[in-house]
Input
Amino acid sequence: MIRKLSLTLAFLAIAAFAAAEEKVVIQYDCIPNYANWGGVTALYKKLTGVTVPPDPKGSSVAMAALEKEKDAPQADTAYYSGAIGFQAASKGLHEPYKPKGWEKIPAALKDPNGLWWTVHTSAIAFVVNTKALGGAPVPRSWQDLLKPVYKGKIAYDDPTWGGTSYTLVYGLNELMGGNETNFKPGIAYLKKLDVNVSSYPRESIYNAVLRGEVPVWINADGNGYKMRYVDNGPVEVVIPSEGTFTMPLVMGLVKGAPHKAEAKRYLDWLLTPPAQAEFAKAYFLPVVPGTLPKEIATHFLPEKEYKRARALDLAKMAAAADALKKAWVDEIRGAGR
Output
C-alpha cells in the first residue's frame, strides 16, 4: 500500500513538473478557422512542443484587451488587420522586434522600427453561398447588395470587434468619396445596406456561411476560397465591380510579454516557408516571396479581378479608427439593433 502511494505521489510530481515546464505563447486574435491559425499553431506545436492556444478576439477587441492589461501584460503577441495593428503600436502596446526574414517583407508592409509587420495579405470580397441565395443572382457589385432581393441575406462583422470589417467600413467610405475625416458617404451607403443585413456578428461566422445560414458574407477573400476548395462548399468569391480593398494582416510583440523569448522564436518561425505555406492553405497570400504553393495559386480569381483592389493608407485608417467606429455604432448598430 505504501509502495503504491509512493508511486502515485511520484507520478503526480512528474505530471506537475511537466505541466510547469510546458512552453506556451499567448497570442490574442488566434481564431482557428481564420487564416488557418488552427493549422499553423498545430504545426508549431508538432515541431517545437510549444502551445499557442486559440483566442476568439478580433483585432479591435485584442487591442482593447492589451490596453486594459498594459500594466500587467497577459499576452505575448497579437494579430490584427493592418490599421488596427498600426493603431496598437501607436498606443505604445508593442515593443520593437524584427523577426528573422524581416528583410523579405516589403517596406510598405512593416514598421521601420519593428513595431508591426505583415505575415500575409487578403482582400475584402463577397463570400457567397450560392445554394443559400434562394434563387437570387450572385451579387456582382456594391450597388447590387442594396437590391431588395438580398433582404436578410447579408452579414458583415461588427467593425468594433474585427479588423477585417473595419477595413471594409473604412474602405467603403473612401470608395464612396469620403476620407479619414469625412465619414458621411460611407455611412450613407451602410445605412442603405442595413435594410438587407441580417446581423453584425462579433465572432467568426465561417461555419454558418458554409452551412448556408448566411448567404452573403462580406469578408476576406481567403475565407471564401477555403470554403470552396478545402471544405467543398457551394461558395463563390466575388470582387465587386466598383472595386475593393487589400488588407495586410500583421503581428506585433506585446510590450512586457510574459514569455518574450519564446514569443520571439515563434514570430521568427511565422515567416519561414513552412509557416507561410500553412497560412496559404486558407488562401491568405504569404508575405514572403516564393512560398505560395502552385496548387493553391491556381484557385484564385484571375489577376485582372484584383486590379480593382486598392491599398489603403494604414496611418490614416488608424487615425480615423475611434471616430469611424463611433459613427458606425451611432448610425448603424444604434439604429434599432
In short: The two ends are 65 Å apart (CA to CA). Confidence is low (pLDDT under 50) at residues 1-20. Residues 74 and 258 are 7 Å apart (CA to CA).
